[in-house]
Amino acid sequence: MRQDELFPAAGSKKDRKRVGRGDSSGHGSFSGRGCKGHKARAGYSTKPGFEGGQMPLTKRSPEKRGFFNAFRIGYDLVNLEQLNRFESGSEVTPLELVAAGLVKSLASRVKILADGTIKSPLTVKAHKFSGAAKAKLEAAGGSVEEIEYARATS
């Protein structure tokens, strides 16, 4: 078989519709667009989600309520009570918190809250601390260090 012998299967190719070529062609006059209206005009296209005047699905669904801030900075919260599992005098970083299962991943920011009491002095490094948590950690003889957030891949 040679390249000049190849041809499409019978019936697979169809001539394009040539509109506006006279009434006897069957596609003359209004060229298949009907009579007047926005669909008959040049440049017509529907907007995505347009449902012909019916209330669109995106507006009908009950989940579409309130406000969602796409730029919100979220934190994984850790209470002081949870830090009692670490040995006295040890350094607690987000890496240790992930290993202990207190934080989901290194990709999230960590905030230490003051719920509970701290029993031993710890050096805690996190992205944010509540004022009461700072005071409780320093009162227990520990230290607090706020670290810069760097997006991690794990």
Concise account of the structure shown:
This protein has helices at residues 57-60, 94-99, 131-139; strands at residues 75-79, 91-92, 109-113, 123-126, 128-129, 143-146. The chain is of the alpha/beta class.
Architecture overview:
This protein is α/β, with parallel strands linked by helices and 154 residues long. It has a domain at 75-146: Ribosomal Protein L15, Chain: K, domain 2. The protein contains three helices and six strands. It has helices spanning 57-60, 94-99, 131-139, and strands at residues 75-79, 91-92, 109-113, 123-126, 128-129, 143-146. The longest helix has 9 residues, at 131-139. The chain is elongated and about 95 Å long.
Topology diagram in text:
Blueprint lengths: L56 H4 L14 E5 L11 E2 L1 H6 L9 E5 L9 E4 L1 E2 L1 H9 L3 E4 L8
Parallel strand pairs: 1-3, 2-4, 3-5, 4-6
Which properties best describe this structure?
154 residues; alpha/beta; Ribosomal Protein L15, Chain: K, domain 2; 3-stranded parallel sheet; 3 helices; 12% helix; elongated
